[in-house]
């Protein structure tokens, strides 16, 4: 993926940034996976913040990763979704909030009653 300049006049390709981008992507992925694996061993909740904190302990530079990096790194996000109990819980709660759709003939009868009340000249 080539990086492009966003100047008004023209867009300039910057292929030399690809190498740096891939290096950072792989660093984030390896630190994130290591942090998640450690959290699993310790039986701790796997959240964006806990991954970021644990990654600082894993990192040789002690920089770690930012919590948003878990979302931006596609491979790491998939790994997070597979192992996180909080993500699974959130998914269940979202599914419960979806409205229930009635699939019966009762809806048809209610609709006709509504039409007859609102528009008595129809029938």
Can you describe this structure?
The protein has 123 residues and is mostly helical. The protein has a domain at 3-86. It has 6 helices and 2 strands, in the order E-E-H-H-H-H-H-H. It has a two-stranded antiparallel sheet. Strand 1 (3-4) and strand 2 form a beta hairpin. It starts with a strand and ends in a 5-residue tail after the last helix.
Q: What key attributes describe this structure?
A:
123 residues, mainly alpha, two-stranded antiparallel ribbon, 6 helices, 2 strands, 3% strand
Q: What is the strand and helix layout of this fold?
A:
Elements: E1 3-4, E2 13-14, H1 16-41, H2 48-58, H3 67-72, H4 74-83, H5 85-97, H6 106-118
Antiparallel strand pairs: 1-2
Helix pairs in contact: 1-2, 1-4
Give the oligomer, counting copies of the same chain as homo and different chains as hetero. single chain
Return the average pLDDT rounded to an integer.
Answer: 79
The percent of residues in helical segments reads: 55-70%
| Largest beta sheet: strand ordering | 1-2
- The dominant shape is flat
Distance between the termini: 64 Å
Number of helices: 6
Structural class: mainly alpha
Number of strands: 2
Strand content: under 5%
Secondary-structure element order, as H and E? EEHHHHHH
Largest sheet: 2 strands, antiparallel
What is the radius of gyration?
26 Å
Compose a concise summary of this entry:
By secondary structure, the protein is mainly alpha-helical. The protein has helices at residues 16-41, 48-58, 67-72, 74-83, 85-97, 106-118; strands at residues 3-4, 13-14.
